[in-house]
Amino acid sequence: MHLPTSTTLAATLLAALTFAHSTQSLPTTHVRAPQCVGESFMSLLPGDFEPSDLAFDATSNNLYVVSDDGRLATFDHVVDDRMTPATVVQLGSPKDYDFEGATVVPHRPDFVYLSNEFPAAIVEYSKKEQKVTRTWTVQTYLDADLSAKKSNHKNAGIESLLYEPTSGTFYAGRQSDARVFVFAIDLDGTSATLSSTTATLVGKMDPPGPGKDLAAITLWRNNLWFLYDKSLALYPVTVQDAQIPADYKPTDVLDATQLTNTDIGALKFDTRGQEGIVFVEVPDTGAKYVFVAVDPPRGKGYEKDLRRYTVDAFFECFSKNGAPADPIFFVQA
Protein backbone atom coordinates (compact mmCIF):
# COMPACT_ATOMS: atom_id res chain seq x y z
CA MET A 1 0.00 0.00 0.00
CA HIS A 2 1.23 3.46 -0.88
CA LEU A 3 0.23 6.10 1.65
CA PRO A 4 -0.43 9.57 0.19
CA THR A 5 2.36 11.98 0.70
CA SER A 6 1.83 15.28 2.50
CA THR A 7 2.05 17.05 -0.85
CA THR A 8 -0.71 14.89 -2.32
CA LEU A 9 -2.94 15.44 0.71
CA ALA A 10 -2.45 19.20 0.50
CA ALA A 11 -3.30 19.27 -3.20
CA THR A 12 -6.42 17.16 -2.65
CA LEU A 13 -7.57 19.39 0.20
CA LEU A 14 -6.95 22.54 -1.85
CA ALA A 15 -8.95 21.15 -4.78
CA ALA A 16 -11.85 20.25 -2.49
CA LEU A 17 -11.89 23.69 -0.91
CA THR A 18 -11.70 25.36 -4.30
CA PHE A 19 -14.63 23.30 -5.61
CA ALA A 20 -16.71 24.02 -2.52
CA HIS A 21 -15.99 27.75 -2.75
CA SER A 22 -16.83 27.90 -6.45
CA THR A 23 -20.03 25.95 -5.87
CA GLN A 24 -21.13 28.28 -3.08
CA SER A 25 -20.35 31.32 -5.25
CA LEU A 26 -22.63 30.31 -8.11
CA PRO A 27 -25.55 32.72 -8.51
CA THR A 28 -28.81 31.27 -7.30
CA THR A 29 -31.34 33.73 -8.69
CA HIS A 30 -29.88 35.21 -11.89
CA VAL A 31 -28.47 33.51 -14.93
CA ARG A 32 -26.52 36.67 -15.80
CA ALA A 33 -26.13 40.14 -14.41
CA PRO A 34 -28.42 42.91 -15.74
CA GLN A 35 -26.98 45.13 -18.44
CA CYS A 36 -26.60 48.20 -16.26
CA VAL A 37 -24.42 50.09 -18.71
CA GLY A 38 -26.96 49.86 -21.51
CA GLU A 39 -26.25 49.74 -25.23
CA SER A 40 -24.65 52.83 -26.74
CA PHE A 41 -25.99 54.33 -29.96
CA MET A 42 -23.93 57.53 -29.81
CA SER A 43 -21.97 56.42 -32.88
CA LEU A 44 -25.17 56.83 -34.92
CA LEU A 45 -25.23 60.57 -34.16
CA PRO A 46 -22.81 63.25 -35.41
CA GLY A 47 -19.69 63.47 -33.27
CA ASP A 48 -20.46 67.01 -32.09
CA PHE A 49 -24.13 66.24 -31.28
CA GLU A 50 -25.04 66.93 -27.64
CA PRO A 51 -28.12 64.85 -26.66
CA SER A 52 -30.39 67.09 -24.59
CA ASP A 53 -33.77 65.35 -24.58
CA LEU A 54 -35.76 62.55 -26.18
CA ALA A 55 -39.27 61.86 -27.43
CA PHE A 56 -40.87 58.75 -28.94
CA ASP A 57 -43.73 58.71 -31.44
CA ALA A 58 -45.61 55.42 -31.15
CA THR A 59 -47.44 56.06 -34.43
CA SER A 60 -44.31 56.11 -36.57
CA ASN A 61 -42.00 54.29 -34.12
CA ASN A 62 -39.60 57.22 -34.45
CA LEU A 63 -37.24 58.31 -31.70
CA TYR A 64 -36.40 62.02 -31.64
CA VAL A 65 -33.25 63.44 -30.05
CA VAL A 66 -32.50 67.15 -29.74
CA SER A 67 -29.18 68.94 -29.41
CA ASP A 68 -28.66 72.29 -27.74
CA ASP A 69 -27.43 73.85 -30.99
CA GLY A 70 -30.80 73.64 -32.74
CA ARG A 71 -30.54 70.20 -34.31
CA LEU A 72 -33.18 67.47 -34.34
CA ALA A 73 -32.23 63.84 -34.97
CA THR A 74 -34.70 61.11 -35.97
CA PHE A 75 -34.16 57.36 -35.56
CA ASP A 76 -36.11 54.50 -37.13
CA HIS A 77 -36.16 50.88 -35.93
CA VAL A 78 -35.37 51.78 -32.33
CA VAL A 79 -36.74 48.55 -30.86
CA ASP A 80 -34.75 46.08 -32.93
CA ASP A 81 -31.20 45.64 -34.14
CA ARG A 82 -31.67 47.60 -37.35
CA MET A 83 -30.98 51.09 -36.01
CA THR A 84 -29.15 53.11 -38.64
CA PRO A 85 -27.51 56.55 -38.41
CA ALA A 86 -30.02 59.22 -37.49
CA THR A 87 -31.46 61.70 -39.95
CA VAL A 88 -30.41 65.11 -38.64
CA VAL A 89 -31.87 68.50 -39.52
CA GLN A 90 -30.64 71.92 -38.47
CA LEU A 91 -33.40 74.33 -37.45
CA GLY A 92 -32.22 77.82 -38.28
CA SER A 93 -28.60 78.58 -37.48
CA PRO A 94 -26.78 76.97 -34.53
CA LYS A 95 -27.24 80.20 -32.56
CA ASP A 96 -30.98 80.51 -33.20
CA TYR A 97 -32.07 77.75 -30.83
CA ASP A 98 -30.95 76.05 -27.64
CA PHE A 99 -33.18 72.99 -27.54
CA GLU A 100 -33.39 71.28 -24.15
CA GLY A 101 -36.81 69.60 -24.39
CA ALA A 102 -38.76 67.51 -26.89
CA THR A 103 -42.21 65.94 -26.91
CA VAL A 104 -44.89 64.67 -29.27
CA VAL A 105 -48.66 65.20 -29.38
CA PRO A 106 -50.38 61.89 -30.19
CA HIS A 107 -53.11 63.36 -32.38
CA ARG A 108 -50.60 65.50 -34.32
CA PRO A 109 -48.06 62.92 -35.57
CA ASP A 110 -46.73 65.21 -38.31
CA PHE A 111 -45.19 67.56 -35.75
CA VAL A 112 -42.53 67.51 -33.05
CA TYR A 113 -42.69 70.04 -30.21
CA LEU A 114 -39.44 71.40 -28.85
CA SER A 115 -38.51 73.78 -26.07
CA ASN A 116 -35.98 76.55 -26.48
CA GLU A 117 -34.27 77.11 -23.16
CA PHE A 118 -33.73 80.88 -23.18
CA PRO A 119 -35.64 82.93 -24.04
CA ALA A 120 -38.16 80.25 -23.10
CA ALA A 121 -40.40 79.15 -25.96
CA ILE A 122 -42.36 76.15 -27.21
CA VAL A 123 -41.52 75.48 -30.86
CA GLU A 124 -43.61 73.49 -33.35
CA TYR A 125 -41.64 71.71 -36.07
CA SER A 126 -43.39 70.26 -39.12
CA LYS A 127 -41.84 67.02 -40.35
CA LYS A 128 -43.59 67.33 -43.71
CA GLU A 129 -42.55 70.93 -44.35
CA GLN A 130 -39.21 70.47 -42.55
CA LYS A 131 -39.43 73.83 -40.87
CA VAL A 132 -40.60 75.61 -37.74
CA THR A 133 -44.27 76.44 -38.21
CA ARG A 134 -45.21 78.10 -34.91
CA THR A 135 -43.53 79.44 -31.78
CA TRP A 136 -45.08 80.32 -28.42
CA THR A 137 -42.89 82.56 -26.28
CA VAL A 138 -43.36 81.99 -22.53
CA GLN A 139 -40.28 83.57 -20.94
CA THR A 140 -42.30 86.20 -19.05
CA TYR A 141 -44.09 83.44 -17.13
CA LEU A 142 -40.83 81.80 -16.11
CA ASP A 143 -39.36 85.14 -15.03
CA ALA A 144 -42.38 86.14 -12.95
CA ASP A 145 -41.31 84.60 -9.65
CA LEU A 146 -37.56 84.92 -9.99
CA SER A 147 -35.54 87.65 -8.32
CA ALA A 148 -34.21 90.42 -10.53
CA LYS A 149 -30.72 89.02 -10.04
CA LYS A 150 -31.69 85.71 -11.64
CA SER A 151 -34.24 86.98 -14.14
CA ASN A 152 -31.89 86.40 -17.07
CA HIS A 153 -30.04 83.42 -15.63
CA LYS A 154 -29.33 80.70 -18.18
CA ASN A 155 -31.22 78.18 -16.02
CA ALA A 156 -34.35 80.35 -15.84
CA GLY A 157 -35.67 79.03 -19.14
CA ILE A 158 -37.25 75.71 -20.13
CA GLU A 159 -35.07 72.68 -19.46
CA SER A 160 -37.70 70.02 -20.16
CA LEU A 161 -40.97 69.70 -22.07
CA LEU A 162 -43.78 67.15 -22.02
CA TYR A 163 -47.22 67.04 -23.59
CA GLU A 164 -49.67 65.31 -21.23
CA PRO A 165 -52.66 64.05 -23.28
CA THR A 166 -55.11 63.51 -20.40
CA SER A 167 -55.20 67.23 -19.67
CA GLY A 168 -54.09 68.32 -23.13
CA THR A 169 -51.41 70.56 -21.65
CA PHE A 170 -47.66 71.09 -21.90
CA TYR A 171 -45.50 70.65 -18.80
CA ALA A 172 -42.43 72.90 -19.04
CA GLY A 173 -39.77 72.41 -16.37
CA ARG A 174 -37.34 75.06 -15.15
CA GLN A 175 -33.89 73.76 -14.28
CA SER A 176 -32.90 76.15 -11.50
CA ASP A 177 -35.62 75.32 -8.96
CA ALA A 178 -37.38 72.36 -10.67
CA ARG A 179 -40.64 74.30 -10.89
CA VAL A 180 -42.97 73.07 -13.64
CA PHE A 181 -45.19 75.47 -15.60
CA VAL A 182 -48.30 74.00 -17.20
CA PHE A 183 -49.52 75.61 -20.43
CA ALA A 184 -52.63 75.12 -22.55
CA ILE A 185 -52.45 75.84 -26.29
CA ASP A 186 -55.20 75.50 -28.87
CA LEU A 187 -53.08 73.53 -31.31
CA ASP A 188 -55.96 72.71 -33.65
CA GLY A 189 -57.65 76.12 -33.65
CA THR A 190 -60.95 74.68 -32.42
CA SER A 191 -61.19 75.92 -28.83
CA ALA A 192 -63.64 78.61 -27.82
CA THR A 193 -61.59 79.58 -24.77
CA LEU A 194 -57.95 79.03 -25.70
CA SER A 195 -55.71 80.75 -28.24
CA SER A 196 -53.77 79.10 -31.04
CA THR A 197 -51.21 81.91 -31.02
CA THR A 198 -50.70 82.28 -27.27
CA ALA A 199 -49.75 79.76 -24.59
CA THR A 200 -52.06 80.10 -21.58
CA LEU A 201 -50.55 79.37 -18.17
CA VAL A 202 -53.01 77.24 -16.19
CA GLY A 203 -50.89 76.62 -13.10
CA LYS A 204 -47.58 75.47 -11.69
CA MET A 205 -46.30 72.51 -9.74
CA ASP A 206 -43.32 71.57 -7.60
CA PRO A 207 -42.47 67.90 -8.22
CA PRO A 208 -40.74 65.54 -5.79
CA GLY A 209 -36.96 65.59 -5.72
CA PRO A 210 -34.18 67.92 -4.59
CA GLY A 211 -35.93 71.09 -5.75
CA LYS A 212 -33.24 72.03 -8.25
CA ASP A 213 -31.46 70.87 -11.40
CA LEU A 214 -34.48 69.33 -13.13
CA ALA A 215 -33.27 67.77 -16.39
CA ALA A 216 -36.25 66.06 -18.04
CA ILE A 217 -39.90 65.04 -17.76
CA THR A 218 -41.39 62.06 -19.54
CA LEU A 219 -44.63 60.06 -19.50
CA TRP A 220 -45.07 56.30 -19.29
CA ARG A 221 -47.82 54.05 -18.02
CA ASN A 222 -49.88 56.70 -16.23
CA ASN A 223 -46.87 58.26 -14.51
CA LEU A 224 -44.93 61.45 -15.07
CA TRP A 225 -41.23 60.83 -14.47
CA PHE A 226 -39.01 63.69 -13.26
CA LEU A 227 -35.28 63.24 -13.97
CA TYR A 228 -32.60 65.14 -12.03
CA ASP A 229 -29.01 65.40 -13.21
CA LYS A 230 -26.75 66.23 -10.24
CA SER A 231 -28.75 64.21 -7.73
CA LEU A 232 -28.80 61.23 -10.14
CA ALA A 233 -32.45 60.43 -9.49
CA LEU A 234 -35.79 59.77 -11.21
CA TYR A 235 -39.11 60.34 -9.43
CA PRO A 236 -42.48 58.99 -10.67
CA VAL A 237 -45.78 60.76 -9.98
CA THR A 238 -49.13 59.44 -11.19
CA VAL A 239 -50.85 61.50 -13.85
CA GLN A 240 -53.76 62.03 -11.47
CA ASP A 241 -51.49 63.48 -8.77
CA ALA A 242 -49.75 65.73 -11.31
CA GLN A 243 -52.94 67.30 -12.67
CA ILE A 244 -53.48 71.00 -12.04
CA PRO A 245 -56.89 71.29 -10.30
CA ALA A 246 -59.58 72.99 -12.37
CA ASP A 247 -60.10 75.72 -9.78
CA TYR A 248 -56.42 76.75 -9.71
CA LYS A 249 -55.38 80.21 -10.83
CA PRO A 250 -52.25 80.64 -12.97
CA THR A 251 -50.38 81.89 -9.91
CA ASP A 252 -51.27 78.82 -7.82
CA VAL A 253 -48.63 76.13 -7.26
CA LEU A 254 -49.50 72.46 -6.84
CA ASP A 255 -47.30 71.01 -4.10
CA ALA A 256 -46.40 67.54 -5.38
CA THR A 257 -43.13 67.28 -3.46
CA GLN A 258 -44.47 64.41 -1.35
CA LEU A 259 -46.40 62.65 -4.12
CA THR A 260 -43.81 60.16 -5.36
CA ASN A 261 -45.56 57.00 -6.52
CA THR A 262 -44.53 54.71 -3.65
CA ASP A 263 -45.50 51.59 -5.60
CA ILE A 264 -42.45 52.34 -7.71
CA GLY A 265 -40.24 54.60 -5.61
CA ALA A 266 -37.39 56.82 -6.74
CA LEU A 267 -34.70 55.38 -9.00
CA LYS A 268 -31.02 56.19 -8.40
CA PHE A 269 -28.21 56.35 -10.97
CA ASP A 270 -24.43 56.58 -11.13
CA THR A 271 -23.94 58.70 -14.27
CA ARG A 272 -23.74 62.50 -14.40
CA GLY A 273 -25.20 64.41 -17.31
CA GLN A 274 -28.42 62.45 -17.86
CA GLU A 275 -30.40 65.10 -19.71
CA GLY A 276 -33.26 63.15 -21.26
CA ILE A 277 -35.22 59.95 -20.82
CA VAL A 278 -38.03 58.21 -22.67
CA PHE A 279 -39.79 54.87 -22.33
CA VAL A 280 -40.42 53.06 -25.60
CA GLU A 281 -43.08 50.38 -25.78
CA VAL A 282 -44.35 48.63 -28.90
CA PRO A 283 -47.42 46.50 -28.07
CA ASP A 284 -47.27 44.57 -31.37
CA THR A 285 -43.88 43.10 -30.51
CA GLY A 286 -43.91 43.38 -26.74
CA ALA A 287 -40.63 45.30 -26.86
CA LYS A 288 -40.02 47.66 -23.95
CA TYR A 289 -36.94 49.86 -23.74
CA VAL A 290 -35.67 52.93 -21.94
CA PHE A 291 -33.50 55.45 -23.80
CA VAL A 292 -31.34 57.91 -21.87
CA ALA A 293 -29.57 60.97 -23.30
CA VAL A 294 -26.26 61.78 -21.61
CA ASP A 295 -24.67 65.21 -22.06
CA PRO A 296 -22.29 65.57 -19.09
CA PRO A 297 -20.47 68.68 -17.92
CA ARG A 298 -17.07 68.99 -19.54
CA GLY A 299 -14.06 67.86 -17.58
CA LYS A 300 -15.95 65.53 -15.22
CA GLY A 301 -14.76 62.27 -16.73
CA TYR A 302 -18.04 61.32 -18.38
CA GLU A 303 -18.78 61.06 -22.08
CA LYS A 304 -21.78 61.99 -24.23
CA ASP A 305 -24.00 59.05 -24.95
CA LEU A 306 -27.34 57.76 -26.13
CA ARG A 307 -28.08 54.61 -24.16
CA ARG A 308 -30.72 51.93 -24.52
CA TYR A 309 -31.79 49.58 -21.72
CA THR A 310 -34.45 46.94 -21.58
CA VAL A 311 -37.14 48.00 -19.13
CA ASP A 312 -36.43 44.99 -16.91
CA ALA A 313 -32.69 45.72 -16.76
CA PHE A 314 -33.36 49.41 -16.13
CA PHE A 315 -35.47 48.74 -13.05
CA GLU A 316 -33.24 45.87 -11.89
CA CYS A 317 -30.22 48.16 -11.99
CA PHE A 318 -31.59 51.44 -10.69
CA SER A 319 -34.68 50.73 -8.57
CA LYS A 320 -34.35 49.47 -5.01
CA ASN A 321 -37.57 47.54 -5.64
CA GLY A 322 -35.98 45.70 -8.54
CA ALA A 323 -37.57 44.89 -11.86
CA PRO A 324 -41.27 44.11 -11.73
CA ALA A 325 -42.03 40.79 -13.37
CA ASP A 326 -44.96 42.49 -15.06
CA PRO A 327 -45.57 46.16 -14.20
CA ILE A 328 -49.22 45.66 -13.31
CA PHE A 329 -49.19 48.74 -11.11
CA PHE A 330 -48.61 50.83 -14.22
CA VAL A 331 -52.07 51.60 -15.57
CA GLN A 332 -51.93 52.73 -19.18
CA ALA A 333 -53.06 56.36 -19.50
From TrEMBL:
InterPro entries xrefs: Phytase-like_dom
Residue ranges occupied by any Phytase-like domain in the UniProt entry: 52-177
Keyword GTP-binding: no
UniProt keyword terms in alphabetical order: Signal
Annotated Pfam families: Phytase-like (PF13449)
Signal peptide: 1-25
Annotated protein name in UniProt: Phytase-like domain-containing protein
Organism encoding this protein: Powellomyces hirtus
Taxonomy of the source species: Eukaryota, Fungi, Fungi incertae sedis, Chytridiomycota, Chytridiomycota incertae sedis
